[in-house]
Structure formats: structure tokens, C-alpha cells
Amino acid sequence: MIAPSILSADFARLAEEMAAVGGPGRGADWLHVDVMDAHFVPNLTLGLPVVESLLRNTGTPLDCHLMIEDPDRWAPGYAEAGAHNVTVHVEAAAEPVALAKNLHAAGANAGLSIKPNTPLDPYTDLLRHYDTLLVMSVEPGFGGQKFMPEVLDKVRAARRMVDTGHLNLLVEIDGGINADTIEQAAEAGVDCFVAGSAVYGADEPERAVEQLRSRAADAFAHGHR
Ligand SMILES: O=C(CO)[C@@H](O)[C@H](O)COP(=O)(O)O
């Protein structure tokens, strides 16, 4: 799956930018929306009122990545608004099990994200309550950063736990994904790739999505033969 990150889109033309990457069946599978509060990360983007408008203007499922403090308080609002997947950071959530239950009760899938230096091991039991694991492959906060291949060990570990039935979730990766880096991520076992600058920085964003998808599919098959 490919989830273009609208962080790299033109914020004055978000409806057109979402349409430019297509939708289910042709183009983007999900649209990735980075919510940043200038506290959990040193950047400020958008919040619930904008997400509500985005939901009214697209049929593509929204994948909301909350890089915010106190997600226990704020994340359920994104689920109630109709986001398909709401991801919170394990480093910020106070009661992640209760939070996942609240997200499910509000009708969304629950995602848990880990920063590059956060280990996976302490959270594997917790992940049984989640539908998505978002492995950050850059320090969260900004688009256009360099991919950190060292996080792929966490992807491989998560993939093994999914393939052996210990976990039941999608493995997602975010940060520095482009035509050069997507193959190693796919070989490690990623299911869903977030890409911002590689999609919205391309001359033809929808074509960039399809190129990423085809490279990932070939590499995934290669890594799991
Ligand atoms: O969450 C983030 C950044 O914190 C990402 O979703 C970025 O939007 C990815 O941008 P690229 O690295 O693909 O340019």
C-alpha cells in the first residue's frame, strides 16, 4: 500500500492535491495526514478542523499520524470525525491500551508509532491491541529527511511476529521513502509506505505513486520468496 503524505503538498490547494494522487483502485491507498503540535515535535501543521474538511473532500481513507502530546485526550476526535486509521506515538500515550479501545469504539483503526531510537521489544504485547505499527525512519517533524536504514531491524522483527501469528497488524514505514529506499523497506517486510516528497515533489504525483508501488511489490516478493 502507498500512502502519500500531504505534508509535502501545497497546503493552499489540499483538495486538488489529494485528488492528484488518485484513490483506491488507482493511485493512493490511503492519504497520510501529519498532525504536529509544536510540542511533541518542533513543527506545527494542522488539526481536527482541517482533517474534517479533508474528509469532506476525498473518498480516500485518511491515515492520521498524530505527532502530539496528550494523544489520549485528542486522538479519539479524529476517529469520531471519520479518519480510517489514527496513529499515536508510544512515547506520548499515557494509557495506550485504553486509547486503542477508544479509537476502535469510535470506529477507526488504531495505529502505534515508534520513533527511530525507540525499541520495539518493550511494546510487543501492547501491539496486540493495535491494527498498525508505524515505524519512523526519520526523526518525526519534517518532510524531506534522509532515510535511516537501521530501523529496518524493527520492521523485520515486526514482520516475523505477524507472519508467525503473534501479531495481527499492518507494518507501515514513514520517512525518506523514495524510489531508491523503498526496495530495502519492502524486502524487510513493510506493508504500507508513507511517501511525501517523493510523491508531491514529482512532476506527476499519481505516476510516482504507481512507480513506488511497483518497486515495492517486486522487492517484497523478492524478500519473501
Ligand atoms: O511524519 C512525517 C515527518 O515527521 C512524514 O510523514 C513526512 O511527511 C514524510 O516525508 P518524506 O520523508 O517522505 O519527504
UniProtKB/TrEMBL annotation:
This protein's pathway reads: Carbohydrate degradation
- Annotated positions binding a divalent metal cation: 32, 34, 65, 174
List UniProt keywords, sorted A-Z.
Carbohydrate metabolism, Cobalt, Isomerase, Manganese, Metal-binding, Zinc
Protein name as it appears in the record = Ribulose-phosphate 3-epimerase
User: Single GO molecular-function term?
Assistant: D-ribulose-phosphate 3-epimerase activity
Q: Which HAMAP family does the protein's record reference?
A: RPE (MF_02227)
Q: Does the keyword Manganese apply?
A: yes
Q: Name one Pfam family in it.
A: Ribul_P_3_epim
Single GO cellular component term: cytoplasm
